[in-house]
Amino acid sequence: QVQLVESGGGLVQAGGSLRLSCAASGRTISTYAMGWFRQAPGKEREFVAAIGWSGRSTVYADSVKGRFTISRDIAKNTVYLQMNSLKTEDTAVYYCAGPRASLSATMTTASGYEYWGQGTQVTVSS
């Protein structure tokens, strides 16, 4: 059974940084694409970043490009989201997600993912 557990959220001032972690169990991430999404109150879940199965390809939402970086550590079976220059509009619950199929390319739509973590709250204050 695949499980994804996020951590690293919290309260930070605008301009600050946070690093989110997503620890996977039940399968190795070395052959699976992974993604990060977020959902703010009253809004739909939106794509943030994704990394391809090989780890060589990444894609970002325009709103976070240049500020956020997705990466992974195969040995720790963990995916990270480094968030710099945070803005108040980045406040949301952040979720990591994994697809059912292995060897898939980066995916930017939630429907492409089968497995989801419980989410971690990120609050950016002004």
Protein model, in words:
Helices cover 0% and strands 47% of the residues. It contains no helices and 11 strands. It is globular. The model has no long low-confidence stretch (mean pLDDT 96).
Key terms for this structure?
single chain, 126 residues, mainly beta, globular
Indicate the proportion of strand residues: over 45%
What is the oligomer described by this structure? single chain
Secondary-structure element pattern, one letter each: EEEEEEEEEEE
Gyration radius, in Å:
13 Å
Q: How far apart, in Å, are the first and last alpha carbons?
A: 40 Å
Helical content band: under 10%
Using the alpha-carbon principal axes, give the shape. globular
SSE-based structural type: mainly beta
Q: What does the largest sheet look like?
A: 7 strands, mixed
Total count of strands: 11
Q: Catalogue the unreliable spans.
A: none
Average pLDDT over all residues:
96
The DSSP helix count reads 0
